[in-house]
Amino acid sequence: MIRREVPADIEAVRMVTAAAFRTAEHSAPPVEPGGDPGEATLISWLRDDAGWIPELSLVAVEGDQVVGHVIATRAGVDGRPALGLGPLSVLPRLQRTGVGSALMHAVLGAADALAESVVGLLGEPAYYRRFGFVPAASLDIVAPEPAWGDYFQVRTLTSYAGLAGHFRYARPFDRISE
Is the model's pTM score more than 0.90? Predict the structure, then answer.
């Protein structure tokens, strides 16, 4: 089942995110030496940021256990509203079973229902293409880091009307790359 995150899920979300990114090919370095991958800390920072959108922090549950999480937060394209998606996390034992896909479909549907226009993310094009993501440059949206190339992608939603310009994630994303 996919549902909105509630306060009781916070520690489980951190554990799922840490487990998922601990084995990931690409992950942010720990904020604390020897600590959890940076993505786990990033989610905590995002919860305390003005870009936090509670309706777009979703968990996958199996029984009463949180087994996956996805988040989309306020971002911008040249100062106009957009969403930044990620991290998307699934417990390693359940990866490649459809949990991540279910989370992705749920967060994109929720974002569309909120009349958002575009979602940006940094990730593997071969994976995210199945959800309608395309290289951001193909829509004249400029990645926060030019070196990301086609790994920075966007997905337009129903209310998209030609938004173009420089993409900027919520401020905590800047902290994770420092």
Answer: yes
